[in-house]
Amino acid sequence: MHQAKKKFGQNFLKDHNLLKKIVSSAKIEGLDVIEVGPGMGALTQFLVLNARTVTAYEIDTSLKPILAKFENNHPNLKIIYGDFLDMEIPNGTFHLVANIPYYITSSIIFKFIELPQMKSATIMIQKEVADRINAKPNSKQYNALSIILQYYCHVKKVMDVPRHMFTPKPNVDSVVIRLEKYDTRPLNNEQELYFIELIKHAFKQKRKTLINNLYEAYGIDKEVLITYLKTFGLDEKIRAEAIDVQTFIEMAKKPINK
After folding, report:
1. How far apart are CA 43 and CA 19, in angstroms?
2. Which of 181, 205, 231 is the C-terminal boundary of a domain?
3. Mean pLDDT in the chain?
4. What values do phi and psi take at 97, rounded to 5?
5. Residue 1 falls within a domain, yes or no?
6. Other Cβ atoms closer than 10 A to 236
7. pLDDT tens digits for 127-175?
8. Are 152 and 181 in contact (CB under 8 A)?
């Protein structure tokens, strides 16, 4: 029996009904799938029955004997051993389906956003992170991740997964979410780079006003910043968590540093 390794954030799911629901919600029939962290193959065994191909990235090489059996029995499955975050993803169109280790959730989500060949993600993540992703302005959970993901993707909560469903049992509950990238977006590539930069600066210190965060980031005179914010109907005392996605999009079209 394989022992879950804390350093890899391993928590294994065994409930077949739940695993089937995850695969069904991913809508991957006849499509090419990427799985991150297949573990002992609990989710993989259902992915290979639905997807055209499954490419699974596993960092824990001690799982080779277990995963090799799946690979031998399913010609549409390819296991790649190594850190997914360091891997080059081949050209094509892929859909991410995974029970993601909590400690690399944000890194995997940002890689998903950055890769044009990744079209959707159906992922199990910590409930707290899911709440942030779905958060609205003026809520405690609303942050840079909320805005960036809501800009790039249609976000849908699929189901709650209580902690007792895992072995070993984690300290938090989980949620399965589905992210579908929009086919078209309102900003061009250059504007999107600034959009992400702007949001990261805006939320760098949440207790500070937006003007103070932008002043520290760009060194622009505060009177100029006040005038800039008024262009978008924003008060000089506003904080980033009170600004909606659409306003940040409009700000990205008129960069303060240009």
Report:
1. 6
2. 181
3. 92
4. -135, 120
5. no
6. 14
7. 999 999 999 999 999 999 999 999 999 999 999 998 888 877 878 899 9
8. yes
